[in-house]
Design goal:
The protein is α+β, with helices and mostly antiparallel strands. The chain has helices at residues 2-28, 51-60, 105-119, 123-126, 144-154, and strands at residues 42-43, 64-72, 77-84, 90-95, 101-102, 130-131, 134-136, 157-165, 170-177, 183-188. The chain has two domains: 42-102; 107-199, no CATH class. 31% of the residues lie in helices and 26% in strands. The longest helix has 27 residues, at 2-28. The relative contact order is 0.07.
Amino acid sequence: MKKVILSVTLVASMIAMTHVQDVNAMNEQPATTIITGEDGFVDAKLEDLSPAVQDSINALTLEYDVEALKYNAEKQLTKVKLIKKDDQSKTTVYFDAEGNKVKNPSMKAEKVKEKVEEQLPSAEISYGMQDDGYVDIKFEALNEKVQEAVRALSEKYDLTALKNNAEKKLFKVVGTSKEDKTEKTFYLNENGEEVNLDAAPVEKEVTEAPELL
């Protein structure tokens, strides 16, 4: 009887040791690395895309080999990295949900931002300059609506100053017209709308009538 009990105990101990070894082996395995997509784009399969996008990509395969295929669900854009068959040159194209070729919006915004920043005076030159409560501000510090308004102005004007008045919640943009080289100053509110400071209401001076005796 003692031998039977001893045998059962020995078997149970061996099973327990085997379980512990399995757990330790699992813990020693390297953790799986989750790779996030670049600029919001993640790897995609051709069959998972819309038929229109598939047709556009298949049309490219006559001249190109597809190197990578990625999708951005938020922007509904498909990114295709291609290698040209004849000269092995690389290119990247973007398609919308209808299969139309489009430019990458983030790249376009970055180029416009660089263009605006190139027009503005450097921080070393303009730092500390202020007038009428306006102080210098960087383009990236503006909210999205004001940035859009400044971008629109940069198409027709070479920007020379960008300032902010926190008390009045106004932004001052100074630019020189690319057409006739005249300088103009624009005032924008927090919604990116142009404000006409000259249209501010003028208080009328009230003259008291003399009292009659």
